[in-house]
Amino acid sequence: MGILIDRNSKIVIQGITGREASMVTKHMLKYGTPVIAGVTPGKKGEEVHGVPVYDTLRQVCSEHEINTAIIYVPPAFVLDAVLETLDNNIKLMVVITENIPQHDVMKLLLEADNAGARVIGPNTVGAINPKERVRLGAIGGDNVERCFVPGCVGVISRSGGMTSETSYMVKRAGLGVSTAIGIGGDSLIGSPPKGLLALFEKDPDTQAVVSFSEPGTSFEEDVAQFVAEGGFTKPLVTYVAGRFTESMPEGTIFGHAGAIIEGGKGKPSTKIKMLRDAGVHVVDRYDDIITVLQSLNLEGVRAHAATSER
Amino acid sequence: MGRLLENHSKQLLAEHQIPVPRFFVAGNEAEAIEKAEALGCEVVLKALVPVGKRGKAGAIKFATDAKSSGEAARQLFGTVVRHYPVKQILVEEKLAIDQELYVSITLDKPARKIAILASSAGGIDVEEISAKYPDRMKILRVDPFRGLADFQAKQLWAELGLGGAVLRQATDVLIKLYKVFVKFDCTILEINPLVITKNAKVVVAASLMAVDDCAMYRHPELAAYVQLGSDRAWRPMTALEKQVVQVNEDDPYRGTARYTEMDGGDIGFMCGGGGGSLMMFDALLSYGCKPANYTEFGGNPPERKVFGLVKGILSKAGVKGLILSANISNNTQVDVVARGVVGALKDKAIDPRKFPVLVRFAGVNDTAAREIFKEAGVEYYGEEISMSMAAKKMMEKMKQTYPGSQESQAASGA
């Protein structure tokens, strides 16, 4: 189990012949991920680490069953790639590309919503399910086990890098990850934390969730409300980064494009208060994630994690 | 998000047949008088700075003649408006106002639509309008694929009480504003106020426009109006900041390097990743350290980008130490980063055995990276310590090297 991705994922990579995409394809295959095909216009017949390349997604879908797309094309071509994905009735896509024009992102998310499809990203490191050995994107790099071992903790992070670091904290707590998802560092994204928590709530393999939060957006406020309303009942541990941004002039970006306080909205202090009021474990220091996770008494599952590791 | 100065946004609006007042730009008091004389009417003088709410900041003045224009200009040129010193002012024809309206166009991100907010009460902050006159405010969310239809714009203004020739003009203006918003990939286009003049003309009295940095590749015509990277500073960008933007742009498709100078500070701060940098900065402050800058890099940058970035960090006056801390990397090659860092230290003739340098960076190729740092005499850690621990160790290192220093001290030691 886990959420969104598993052994049934049948994956196509759009823009597979690019430098980063090609390296990531190699890493994904090495991990055991079912990468079925790739698309790069004009390169039909080529192979990338044994994965066949096609000119169009339609060609891929006429020969293979595909249910998941990873989009690695340059910013100017992402909107079109997403429309092509939707047109081929693929309902899950991970948009890795950073710095896509906002108007394009708005359009692609609207079209995905209208088609009932889910977008992870843009500007994401991807997602991973260690038990099923499926990873989408660069997540885990060339040494997946360093940070990601199977277990009962879901991870949601607005930062790609901190998806791995947070999963490493989970490992140091003696636990492992059910599914870890980098949701992307922008304010305009397809899968904010609230919706993912709803999926983790229903996942029997997930006993608790750790999230990495940042200033800007109303994602954490939405989570607080969702938890308060009883939408997510498992333990939720979060760290809110960027408290210093509140003492800086408003409207300045620090770190991610989404990390911006505007019109008094998006302040870490507000998020922390709302989350705490809703019963979420908000840690003051990032390293405290370890001790809080250990205090949650996820005993039965820790044994499970240990078994899976062997 | 790059904000345009008002003269630039008004020029763009005028080029798209949207009525704006006659205006000039003045660089000093004498020019302001000259331009006011050329306009030959009552004038408005506005500080040309890329910030909103200028009225409240005292950055807008009115003058009845050329002489009083000089006086108003003199007052404006001496000021700093929300961290921006006033170097130029807009000298503009004062409109004879019958009614003030408000309209803004933005991206409604959760709704995935373009939001048009309009009000029959303009000339005051939008927050004030919504608090005082909620019934005089309407919001319209537009499907970006379908665009804004004439009837929608007309309906919006009609519901706000407009009629007759004014309704037709306001509709026409809104349709054109929407087109500008879409054409230039704006993140905001705010007209406050949109004026109905005494002779029943609808004119844009004040405009605030920002465009998406990420879309600049398709708007080369805006390059002169938008300072790339300016959304990461709250004041005019410094020479070093512009230098690092250039370093980044020299390799536009490989990795990112972003650099913001903080006031004061003595520790060069270099962090991998947007989230990690937010966390590390908090951690350093919590241990009483004073970072001199805010630097974030990632996406597997080439060595020369890292080299240029570190040189920038070390070039700021008052920097007496360097911390490089990053999350366990997914794709950034740590050895490549190591070569860039060590190269920059050598270039600046810095001996890391005397000048505190601390690195915590595990990930791709970190065995090789450890060797490179070790050989250069840099204190290096991989995942054996956490990022927070690295912050604490840096504080201790600074204290040992500079006992009794005024800057980074274990103020809280929490």
Number of strands of chain B: 19
Main β-sheet of chain A, in a few words? 7 strands, mixed
Gross morphology of chain A:
globular
Structural Rg of chain A: 19 Å
Number of helices of chain A: 10
**Number of helical stretches of at least 4 residues of chain B:** 12
Record field, number of beta strands of chain A: 14
- Give the name of the CATH superfamily of the largest domain in chain B: Succinyl-CoA synthetase domains
> What is the rounded Rg of chain B?
26 Å
**Biggest sheet strand line-up of chain A:** 3-4-2-1-5-6-7
The oligomeric state of the chains shown is heterodimer
Number of domains of chain A: 2
Broad CATH class of the largest domain in chain A: Alpha Beta
Rounded mean pLDDT of chain A is: 94
Query: Average pLDDT of chain B, to the nearest integer?
Result: 93
What is the fold-level CATH name, i.e. the topology of the largest domain in chain A? Answer: Rossmann fold
Please characterize this protein's 3D structure.
- The complex is a heterodimer of chains A (310) and B (414).
- Chain A is 34% helix and 20% strand.
- Chain A has 310 residues and is α/β, with parallel strands linked by helices.
- Chain A has two domains: 124 residues, Rossmann fold (3-Layer(aba) Sandwich); 164 residues, Rossmann fold.
- By secondary structure, chain B is of the alpha+beta class.
- In chain B, 36% of the residues lie in helices and 24% in strands.
- In chain B, the strands form four sheets. In chain B, strands 1, 8, 9, 10, 11, 12 and 13 form a seven-stranded antiparallel sheet that branches. A six-stranded mixed sheet of chain B has the order 14-16-15-17-18-19, with helices on both faces.
- In chain B, helix 9 crosses helix 10.
- The longest helix of chain B is centred in the middle third of the chain and has 20 residues.
- The two termini of chain B are 37 Å apart.
- The chains are: A alpha/beta (310), B alpha+beta (414).
- At the A-B interface, helix 1, helix 4 and helix 5 of A face helix 8, strand 16 and helix 12 of B.
